[in-house]
Structures are given as structure tokens and as C-alpha cells.
Amino acid sequence: MVIVHISAECYPMAKAGGLADVVGALPKYQNKIGEKAMVVMPMYQTAFLQQNKWDVHFKGHTNLGDWFFDFTIIKESTGKLGYDLFLVDIHGLLDRPKIYGYPDDIDRFVGFQVAVVNWLTQWEVLPDIVHCHDHQAGLIPFMMKYCFDYQKLQLVKTVLTIHNAQYQGVMDWAKSILIPRWDISKKGLLEWNNTINSLATAVKCADKITTVSPAYSQQLKFQSNGLETLFDNEQGKCVGILNGIDNELWDPATDSMIANHYNASNVIVEKKKNKKALCVKYNLDPNKPLIVFIGRLVGEKAADVLPGAIQHALDKTNCGVNFFIVGAGETATESALNYLVQLYPGNYNTFIGYEERVGHEAYASADFLLMPSRVEPCGLNQLYALRYGTIPIVRDTGGLHDTVVDMGDPDGFGIKFLNANEQDIVYSVERAIAVYQDKIQMNKMIQYAMQIDHSWESVVIAYKKIYESIL
User: Fold this and answer.
1) Which of 204, 264, 375, 440 could in theory staple to 450 by disulfide, Cβ–Cβ 3.0 to 4.6 A?
2) pTM of the entire structure?
3) Which CATH class is domain 267-450?
4) b/e for 370-407, b at 16 or more Cβ within 10 A?
């Protein structure tokens, strides 16, 4: 079976969030079970692009409205990723340092999709599955079926995976000229709320829809940024498949980004060494429980609640805990979090930005990971934390509901709360401090957490069944 994954992100080429980690791992594990999976994504100007070798695979010419452009498909030449990685180069449109955040992002990703579909029509043997990820590839199922120039692809099956339905690729109808000649009678498939909505179009046109956790599949019918009725209507072709993690990349026994390696048998001793090193580096107290937050500093992650919650928690516990924040996002939140460094030296610090190494060091050092997310379709951070013996403190939503069992349960290994507010977070911090002081229970939870299997091996079988159901 030949599977083409189309995505705006893929680790290690370009990463803004969990989408990149999933797209960078799923095809590798699909290939391990005998499929032929590959990834197609935009060619951004990233370090990975500059540091690796590429072969020119295809050159094409097409248009975006009245702009005619050349595009090039290049391929990573060694195959070291475990799958073929293809990049789409459109000079002046995609070859920029950032993934998102430009005023013409709509044009950029429509152009990317047009180039991809144009290239696919040139294949002598067509793929079995075109697997689109999020709205940046959401117009592809429509174009394959209803654009006149791409009728060769009409019978190729498509799957959409929704990693985050809050972002939908909405555009004004004036942008419809960017889509290659299409069947005007299918206008309703593009439309949602008097706009063109890329994600809604994909939901309507894809042969199958997957979400990144079972709970999120149900949650979309009640919380999907205006698409609730659509997901309710289309629930028959929606399936929730919990994401896996790449156990080869995320392994505390071999992780090249951490100083002291460990497994379930020596985690208590070796993890303390990592914690001490991190605390020395960031002026924290290694004798107190260490709670980290790793992620985007945006409202979706409830990052705006963190400054007040952390200040309240430190005051209420008489600085009986350390906090370390790793992430970047909204300027006001970054400033508020940085300000706390002056108020609580020795108990609080930040790393504003994101470096993969700092993230790995934080997982390998922390006692607890805080995830107060308002929206969390799957969440990978809590899975990385479990793998590294770090106890997750999470809001009970989406994939966090599916993957964390509260320590109040006989087999519990985490801390869960209901609301993304200061009160619930502070109460959860107090629970964390209490269990940290109970070394027998804490060590038991750590040992249990590290043995939970969230690898991709079982996940790829679920995807294979999805593909087979529509072929």
C-alpha cells in the first residue's frame, strides 16, 4: 500500500507543535510493517534543509489564480528518516524561515496544495491513499475530486487527520480564484458560514476522518470553533485514534540530549542527577518538587492563567515547589511569566523560546509536567512525560482524558483537574507536593508510568484498518 502524507509540518524538518512529531513518526512505523509511506511538505528555510543533502525529483509549472509559477520537488537523499521526505519549493512563497505567521499564509498553503496535486497527476502509478493533515492540506480532497485538471486522481482515496480543529484555513470567496478550475456545482463543499473553510471542505470531501484521540472525536461535536453541526452530521466517518510517540527518539535510556540516562530500574537515582544539573543551570532548588510547563504560550494551552496560578501557588505553599516554564507565544503572557523571575528567585525560572534539547532536559529532570489546556486534541507532552518518569498534572479534556488516570484511582499515575483556572491548578499543585513527600507512592507512580506503552506499533495497525476499509 502506497501512502502519501501531506502536512505543513514534519519533525525534524520543521516543527511548531505536535503535528510535526506525529507526521515525523507515523510513516516510519508504517514502513516497518511493510507499507510504503512518504511525506510531502513545504520547503522552508530551516537548519535541517541546510544541513542535509537533497535530490531534485520533479520540476513543474502551474498557477495560483493569475500568477503562474514554477515549482520543484526535492527529496532527502539518504532515506535516514525511515521514510521518503519530499519538499515543495515555490520560490518567494514557501522558502521562508517560519512555518506560519505571514500575512499571505492562505496563498502560501493553497499554492503548496496546488503544486502537490499537480505533481501527483504526473505519477505513472498513483498512490493508494493520500493522507492529509489539518487544514493546510484540507483542499486536496476537493481538488482531487472536483478540479477539472486533476480528474486522474478522482478515485484515489483520501484520509483527513484532524490534529486541531481550532484552526480552519478560512478565506474569503475572492480567494476562490486560487483553486484550479473546479466544478461550480460543488460550491457547497467549499462553503461554511459564507466563507471558504479549508477544514470543513476536507471533512465533507475526505473518504475517512480520524482525530488524534477518541475523546476528541466526540468533543468536536460540542467544541470545534463553529463546526459542531458539521462534525455531528459527519460522525459516521469519524474515528478517534490515539497518537503514539516515537520510542526510539524519546527514550531516556539512549536520549543524546540528556546527560544521565536511565530506565525504570534506575530512574530514581539517575533522574535526580538530571534534576540537580537543571536546577543549578536555572537557579532552582533541587530539594523541592519541580513542576515544568513545556509548550506554546497561548490561550489554547491556558498559558494566560499560568502567571497568576504560579504566583498563587508559590505564595500559598511558602515557595515549597519549583516552577520552570519552557515555551513561546503571546507577548503579554511571556512578559508576565518573565516578571515572576524577579519575584521568586530560586524557585522559578523561564526559558522563553523552544529548543528541542531544553525540552528533553526538562522531561528528564522534572518531577511533574503541568498541562492546564483548554483544548488538547491528543497531547504528546504527557506521553513524553510518562516515558521519562515525569508525573502529568493535566486538565481532564480531549486526549488528556484518554491517557492520564488520576492518582485517586488504585492504578492512577497522574493528577487531573476539571477547570483551566487558578484555583484548580493551585489545588493540583498542592496534591503534587503531598505525593512528592510520600516517596513510596511517588516512586510507585514513576515506575508504573514508565512501563505504559504509547508506542506507534499498535497505532499503525489501526490506521491500516482505516485505509483498508475505504479501499
Assistant:
1) 264
2) 0.91
3) alpha beta
4) bbbbbbbbbbbbbbbbbbbbbbbbbbebbbbbbbbeeb
Cell of 450: 514508565
Name the burial class of residue 264, with classes exposed (0-12), middle (13-18) and buried (19+) by CB atoms within 10 angstroms of its CB: middle
Residue 346 pairs in a beta bridge with 284
Distance between CA 423 and CA 465 in Å, rounded?
Answer: 43
Residues of the chain with pLDDT under 70: none
Amino acid, single-letter form, for residue 358: V
Cα distances (angstroms) measured from residue 285 to each of 25, 288, 325: 36, 6, 15
Q: Which of 439, 430, 373 is nearest to 404 (CA)?
A: 373
The CA-atom distances, in angstroms, between 37 and each of 24, 26, 27 are 11, 9, 5
Structurally, at CATH architecture level, domain 2-244+456-470 sits in 3-Layer(aba) Sandwich (3.40)
Directed axis angle between helix 267-281 and helix 439-450, to 10°?
A: 100
Structure-block grid coordinates of residue 342: 524577579
Q: List the chain domain ranges.
A: 2-244+456-470, 267-450
Tens-digit pLDDT profile for residues 161-179: 999 999 999 999 999 999 9
- List CB contacts of 247: < 8 A, sequence separation 6 or more: 387, 455, 456
AA letter at 171: M
User: Tens digit of pLDDT for each residue in 321-351?
Assistant: 999 999 999 999 999 999 999 999 999 999 9
Residue type, 86: F
| pLDDT score for 252 | 98
Looking at the DSSP bridge assignments, the partners of residue 55 are: 75
Query: Do 267-450 and 2-244+456-470 have the same topology in CATH?
Result: yes
Residue pair 168/197 in contact (Cβ under 8 Å)? The answer is yes
Q: What are the grid coordinates assigned to 204, written together?
A: 465533507
